[in-house]
Amino acid sequence: MQWWPPLLLGAFLAVCLPPSPLGFLVPLPLIWLSTQGGFRFGLLAGVGFWAVHLVWLPLSFVVLFETPWGAVPYLPLVLIKAAIWGVVFGLSRGKPLARAGLWVVQEYLTSLGEIAFPWGFLGYALVDAPGRVLSSLGGVYLLSLLVLLVAVALYYTGSRLMQERVVFSTYSLGLLGVLLLWVGLWVLPLPPTQGSATALLVQGNINPLRKLEGVSAEETYLELTYRGLQAHPEARVVVWPETAVATFSPTLSAFLGSRELLSGLETGLTNRTVRVVGGQITHYYDKNRLVPFGEFFPWSEALRPVYRFFFRAFGFYGDLGSRTPGTTYTPLDKYGAFICYESVFPSVARKLVLNGAEVLQLGSNDAWYGPSFGGLQHFQMGRLRAVETGRWLLRAGNDGVTAIVDPFGRVTARIPQRQAGYLAGQFALLGGLTPYVRFGDWAVVLAGALTVFGLRIRAKGTIV
Fold first, then answer.
1. Which of 149, 186, 261, 393 could form a disulfide with 386 if both were Cys (CB 3.0 to 4.6 A apart)?
2. Which helix (H) or strand (E) holds 219?
3. pLDDT digits 0-9 by tens, 425-452
4. What is the pLDDT of residues 47-86, one digit of tens each?
């Protein structure tokens, strides 16, 4: 087997996922990736995929920290993720149904544990398609399974059609049906939505390194909020991003009045979002899913020399302590507040809604992505949490993306990245539970059953 076909197929697949608008092409590389090869094929395809999908990591770290050492963590991460693909391909060699199921199962497994890194899910290819509404039934995992089964069906019907060389047959009708299904996911009409309340989202555009050096962002957020409320006095809730400030000025309550403020609060020990009314903190939420090797440092004793080396290479002297994670998923009154990295975990938003959240509020600081496309990729993945839970999403980012997303995943309001500003837009408080919120990750169970079924059968050739 030549090394370059799987490598190119993996890279092609990566180009089809967010933030690329080419999601409609994702079945093309998957026709081969979901049906061909074993461990070596999967490993090479994984290298091609992850090298492209995660290229924002070296691009952002090298620029942000002004050192080539920022690119070093990229290589082992790509190889580890690619090796997982190799295992999936090796276990399902010649059994496409098993591979489709096992692929989704491994996606789910990468969202578990302290060092979880749930990137690269195939279901995100549909984030710009109206068919993303199916995630309200079974989450992003149902979308991933659907994408894979479409690719397998295209391969099966197409190959049988070429073998029989009959224009009109059962396989030609099957191929047409699969194509119509895929097209339907991209043209499905969605009902309109209407907000009933106005939120003011503030984007400070503060350099995160300067904040680590003790530079205060309070004046920036106060000034932008004051200007925003002057222009939009109807706003009843103000949203600041992750770790926006360390304290709240007494002047804040003067112009907020009875309005609510949802803000990230830098406490040093925790990453916290608070609800402030009348100058007083009424509720708080501590981030549960911390960024591995960023907000907490696994195996710190064993890897202490390694950590110290990289801290100094990045310009930090002394040890960076791990934050303390939260222990509950409690809404801030009616607001399901979650923080940055947590937006790529479907379970986080689901738990907040189960506990009573009527709207999702995400504070993020994607300035760490620097000039790369990482921030856009992060935003596109997080959009799906609104659809899964059937809730509006208010997303305030330090340097963007600051946007409002409706329960069908449409971006109803947004401001440009990497500039200070504010965004006023409408949203609504909603009740009820989507099937995904009510029943959880049943699509993963279905994928597991498909894996077992696919491993037990084999049809002609390599087709299962």
1. 393
2. helix 218-231
3. 999 999 999 999 999 999 999 999 999 9
4. 999 999 999 999 888 887 778 888 888 999 999 999 999 9
Residue count of the chain, please give it. 464
Q: How many other C-beta atoms lie within 10 A of the C-beta of residue 68?
A: 11
Q: How far apart are CA 36 and CA 126, in angstroms?
A: 23
DSSP 3-state of 36: coil
137 plus 245 within the same structural domain = no
| Same structural domain, 215 and 146 | no
Residue 338: name the closest of 282, 388, 396, 295 by CA.
396
Q: How far apart are CA 97 and CA 458, in angstroms?
A: 10
Domain that residue 60 falls in: 4-190+441-456
User: Do residue 247 and residue 135 come from a single domain?
Assistant: no
| Residue 415 forms part of a structural domain | yes
Total structural domains in the chain? 2
- Output the CA torsion 150→156→161→163 (10° steps): 160
Determine the Cα–Cα distance for residues 290 and 83; give it in Å rounded to an integer.
Answer: 24
